[in-house]
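Q: Fold this one first, please.
A: Sequence and structure below.
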Amino acid sequence: MDASFDLAPVYRELGAREVDLVRTHLLRLGRNSRTMRFGYAVSDEFIENYCSAVRRLNIMTFGALVDGELRAVAELRRVSDARPADAEVALSVEDAWQDDGIGTRLLSHVRRSARYHGIATLHMICLRENYRMRCIAQKYRARTKTLADQIGADAPRADLDCLPVASEWRADKAGFVTFALDV
């Protein structure tokens, strides 16, 4: 079943207090989507433990919210403290929302945000059979390499220019206002 966009998704960074939204999102993922996200089949208990650990780790989390429901998540975790730094990206999109471009647009938001945090390269690792992530990596001209049963992709952050900066500022403000009204 494909979801229709009655309302446009709001893309924004999620706050530390919104980890319950992430947990609920991950628990809604189907078996195959969980496997594609984590690289192997995971249980509800694994997701509960994972979300508890996310609070302690230095992970930036971004989401695509549709009508107040979190439908896609991108996690950005630094892998070095050097400047410019590198970071790993993990992406999940709920089954009914896949193949509509929501993952691509969410990663675009993450790439723009990465430049503000001094991150030069985004690393993505996915299973070979995860054709959706492979397609997203190709859209951003990521350099790919084969790693046993996985594919690694390195994508540069978005280039800095004034128009995307202004549009991101507006999008972030709209996301903040939506978040504040929800609270």
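Q: Good. Now the second chain.
A: Here it is, same layout.
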Amino acid sequence: MRKIESKITNLKQIRDIARRLRLKGKVIVTTNGCFDLIHLGHVKNLQKARLLGDVLIVGINSDSSARKNKGGDKPITSHKERSRIVAALESVDYVLIFDQTDPSLWLKLIKPDIHVKGRDRKMEDIKERWAVKEGGGKVILLPLVKGVSTTKIINRIKKLKP
């Protein structure tokens, strides 16, 4: 089993890794998100995403980009913690923390064959779809696990009495 730290990479490293993988004919799958308070929906969709190709690269929003995308009270956990938790999952090959609110920059460098998002969005709402298509890849929407979300978990916790 690979060490968690060896899965966490930076932009230059992941660009070089993707180049080497492509030369070997590997199918590269990517996804991205905040991944705050990992739950069953995250785990199942990462497993499904990994089955679509040979390598799964997960982009994780930095704390500042997560706040811009999700609001001031998120993320609950730091990007350092979130990246280590996601990297610990067997289905994940590499993790990249990115500062932008839109993942298009690193997706243009990686040029994934497949980029996966959840069906909580419509295709036209996925900002990065153009970057993926320009690189020759396609975007696939995976079904969500019913009844599970970070927001629902947070709301349940808020209702608990101390």
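Q: Anything worth noting on the second one?
A: The mean pLDDT is 92.
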